[in-house]
Design brief:
Layout lengths: L2 E5 L2 H11 L7 E5 L2 H4 L3 E2 L7 H10 L4 E4 L2 H5 L2 H6 L8 E5 L1 H8 L1 H10 L7 E5 L3 H10 L4 E5 L8 E4 L2 H12 L10 E5 L5 E9 L4 E3 L4 E2 L2 E3 L3 E4 L4 E4 L6 H21 L4 E12 L2 E8 L7 H4 L7 H10 L13 E9 L22 E4 L2 E4 L2 E4 L3 E9 L2 H12 L7 E2 L9
Parallel strand pairs: 1-2, 1-4, 2-3, 4-5
Antiparallel strand pairs: 5-16, 6-9, 7-8, 7-9, 10-11, 10-16, 12-15, 13-14, 15-18, 16-17, 18-22, 18-23, 19-22, 20-21
The structure holds adenosine monophosphate and glycine.
The site of adenosine monophosphate has 12 residues, from strand 7 and strand 17.
Length: 423
């Protein structure tokens, strides 16, 4: 099979690494990829939403399968683009169609889906510019903290959690009337604040049947102790120690099954990963959000724990025969620590040479924001490299990641030294 992975981050390097190990993989391409993917596949300099250029590549290289990493192309309809094209319609695309991708593309759509299918989530109402006064009144009925969510995609920045009622009203005004998040905040979802510990669960589905992948927990804040600005993710651990069998059964019965049944009842076409962001309130799981792709850096700990060859699983997703497959999971824990550019998630510099990569032993190196420049690996993004390690115990695994990080350096390199601190 000839396979194309879309994307350029740590998630995509991990998926490429895994797919490269398959006996079924013949030619493997990544668009646009990074320095890490260029060592195991062919990078093609095409943007993930340049559908015409992707089409040309797929035809020229006789590509049979496209694995979509990020949400952008999915929300913009890459699945439908393939399905509606005579020459592309038989290519397997791993992801939902445009309508189903609204589960990530619109918070209101996701909330309506959950409420229609009785999936536990925070109580909510949504508002537009014309109902901003009603929004203020709704805020008055809630207790602090107040959760405001821009309806559309806002690069992970669209959720505000505020302690003060007046501040919440002001921000609601900023979002709806002053377009704080542009198009994304034409609508705002206001929801009840849920207090608990977060985790993520991942599902691979063909729209009919599904496989539940290992759980993971990511660390989103830039600062140790979970303080400071939100990032894409600074590290992750799988499995989540507090998600025991009883709790996972609750997730399965109350959330995963109704979600997959919901796809069928709503006639959604969904052949890909579902990333369910959860919060554990007392002993019960609630959905915080859906994403229509894998998480990053969760992929860097979840995928390495899957022993199966991924390609036959993806084929089964494409042919809707996933019900015949079972997962084989590595019992060991996996941890990952993200090395980032100084300044991230605000302004940072690129083009810094990364030293010591050849000295890493007993850990996996997944490139996120890197590129090759004069045969040297240099930084090319905020999140630069993820160092993943396995061990029976996650505390031991994380030690391995940190020991290897000691051998790595680039100008203004930063990472959190406390991944897993709360477990
Ligand atoms: P989201 O983009 O929906 O994942 O929200 C970003 C973050 O905001 C989540 O990871 C949570 O930490 C927090 N959050 C979102 N919704 C709620 C809620 N209803 N209650 C408490 N925290 C929330
Ligand atoms: N790590 C969170 C995400 O991928 O959205």
């Amino acid at each position: 099979m000839n396979i194309l992975v879309l994307g350029s981050g740590g998630r995509e390097h991990t998926l490429t690494w895994k797919v490269a190990q398959s006996e079924k993989t013949e030619k493997l391409f990544v668009a646009p990829g990074n320095a890490g993917t260029s060592q195991i596949a062919t990078n093609v300099n095409i943007g993930v939403t340049d559908f015409e250029a992707i089409k040309k590549l797929v035809i020229e290289e006789a590509i049979n399968m496209v694995i979509v990493g990020p949400e952008d192309p999915l929300v913009k309809g890459v699945y439908d683009f393939f399905l509606n094209d005579e020459t592309l319609k038989n290519v397997i695309v791993i992801g939902p169609d445009k309508a189903a991708a609204q589960l990530e593309g619109s918070k209101e759509f996701a909330k309506e889906f959950m409420s229609r299918h009785n999936i536990p989530t925070a109580a909510y109402q949504s508002f537009t510019k014309d109902s901003v006064e009603e929004g203020y009144a709704f805020l008055e009925t809630l207790e602090a903290p107040y959760v405001l969510k821009a309806d559309g995609l806002a690069a992970g920045k669209g959720v505000l959690i505020l302690n003060d009622l007046q501040e919440a009203k002001d921000e609601l005004h900023n979002m709806l009337v002053d377009s704080k998040f542009g198009e994304a905040s034409t609508k705002v979802v206001i929801e009840e604040f849920l207090s608990g510990i977060e985790l993520s669960c991942f599902v691979l589905t063909d729209g009919k049947d599904y496989l539940t992948l290992p759980t993971a927990k990511d660390y989103k804040r830039i600062g140790e102790g979970d303080v400071g600005l939100n990032t894409g993710g600074m590290g992750a651990i799988s499995p989540v120690p507090f998600a025991d069998e009883v709790f996972i059964k609750k997730i399965e019965d109350r959330i995963i099954k109704p979600t997959i049944n919901g796809f069928q009842k709503d006639k959604m076409t969904y052949k890909g990963f579902v990333f369910i962001g959860l919060i554990k309130v007392n002993e019960d799981p609630y959905v915080i959000e859906y994403n229509v792709r894998m998480g990053d850096p969760e992929t860097e700990v979840v995928i390495p724990r899957i022993k199966n060859d991924l390609v036959p699983l993806f084929e089964a997703v494409g042919n809707q025969t996933l019900g015949e497959k079972t997962l084989n999971i590595d019992e060991r824990a996996a941890t990952t620590v993200m090395l980032v550019s100084g300044g991230y998630p605000e302004a940072y510099e690129k083009g810094k040479e990364i030293n010591g990569l050849e000295n890493v032993h007993d850990s996996l190196v997944f490139h996120a924001g890197t590129k090759l420049e004069d045969k040297k690996v240099v930084t090319n993004g905020g999140r630069v490299i993820a160092i993943t390690s396995y061990d029976e115990d996650f505390n031991e695994a994380i030690k391995k990641s940190y020991q290897n990080i000691e051998k790595l350096s680039f100008d203004k390199m930063y990472y959190r030294k406390d991944i897993g601190f709360d477990l």
